[in-house]
């Protein structure tokens, strides 16, 4: 499998052993199928770690496979990297390759991370429509060509994200995020069976429930975009990010009160989790 080293900063861990990031051995060994997870580390705390590890295992189960490495070992290796790389605010990637073999390979490494500046939230993002859908939407499986094709389209259109549209003209999710649409005080998002169940997505659902904001698990079609009051994407690095345009259609998401309440509620959940973890140390 042709995969470049993504390891950022000085060290990464491959099958329990620490490697210098210039050493390609761990990445050269990667073979299909590959299941991965990206977790945000804030102030030295891997955010919603338990939920990410659970999702990674569920991705394997959807393929009829099992990740052998134990949660405690993975947690210890993440914490070891935080200390060794002297970095407490970054994204960490967990990658399990050859998941269908007796001897699996497991990498833990920091990746170059981008977190949108305040101005991006204040003006919203431009998105495009991309006519494609995931083969197995609930499983986070590496698909290099799919990612490269979408990245090319995003770059060509000077966009931040692409909304995936299926053959029926239904918007399912973002290429690397979950999508939420707001209309008349209600929030719409694609049914769980049709999308990658993001950890941030699940947290947002809980925030909406706590705030008594109705969430309807129903996908919207391309022709419905013009009727929306607003939309936002969610993801590990972006939290709740308002969408100002989908193709040529402009949306007033930045000033939408429902989106603002959800964004603030999610930030509060993040802070509460980090604080609770710090108190356990």
TrEMBL record:
A Pfam family per the record: Aminotran_4
Keywords: Aminotransferase, Pyridoxal phosphate, Transferase
Keyword Endoplasmic reticulum applies: no
Cofactor(s) in the UniProt record: pyridoxal 5'-phosphate
Matching InterPro entries: Aminotrans_IV (IPR001544), Aminotrans_IV_CS (IPR018300), Class-IV_PLP-Dep_Aminotrnsfr (IPR050571)
Tagged with keyword Iron: no
Entry GO MF terms: transaminase activity
Top-level taxonomic group: Bacteria
Family per similarity comment: Belongs to the class-IV pyridoxal-phosphate-dependent aminotransferase family.
Identification of the protein by name: Aminotransferase class IV
Organism: Crassaminicella indica
């Amino acid at each position: 499998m042709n995969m470049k080293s993504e390891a950022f900063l000085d060290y990464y861990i491959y099958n329990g052993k620490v490697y210098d990031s210039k050493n390609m051995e761990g990445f050269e060994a990667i073979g299909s199928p590959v299941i991965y997870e990206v977790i945000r580390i804030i102030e030295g705390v891997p955010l919603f770690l338990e939920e990410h590890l659970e999702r990674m295992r569920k991705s394997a189960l959807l393929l009829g496979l099992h990740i052998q490495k134990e949660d405690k070992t993975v947690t210890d290796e993440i914490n070891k990297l935080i200390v060794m790389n002297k970095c407490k605010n970054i994204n960490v990637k967990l990658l399990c390759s050859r998941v269908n073999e007796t001897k699996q390979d497991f990498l833990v490494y920091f990746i170059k991370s981008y977190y949108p500046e305040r101005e991006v939230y204040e003006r919203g993002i431009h998105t495009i429509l991309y006519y494609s859908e995931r083969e197995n939407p609930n499983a986070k499986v590496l698909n290099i060509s799919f990612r490269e094709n979408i990245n090319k389209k995003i770059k060509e259109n000077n966009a931040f994200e692409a909304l995936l549209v299926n053959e029926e003209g239904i918007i399912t999710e973002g290429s690397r995020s979950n999508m939420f649409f707001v209309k008349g005080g209600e929030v719409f998002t694609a049914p769980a069976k049709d999308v990658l169940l993001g950890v941030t997505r699940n947290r947002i659902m809980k925030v909406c429930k706590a705030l008594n904001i109705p969430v309807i698990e129903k996908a919207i079609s391309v022709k419905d975009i013009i009727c929306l009051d607003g939309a936002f994407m969610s993801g590990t690095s972006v939290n709740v990010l308002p969408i100002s345009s989908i193709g040529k259609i402009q949306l007033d998401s930045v000033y939408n009160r429902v989106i603002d309440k959800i964004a603030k509620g999610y930030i509060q959940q993040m802070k509460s989790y980090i604080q609770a973890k710090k108190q356990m140390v």
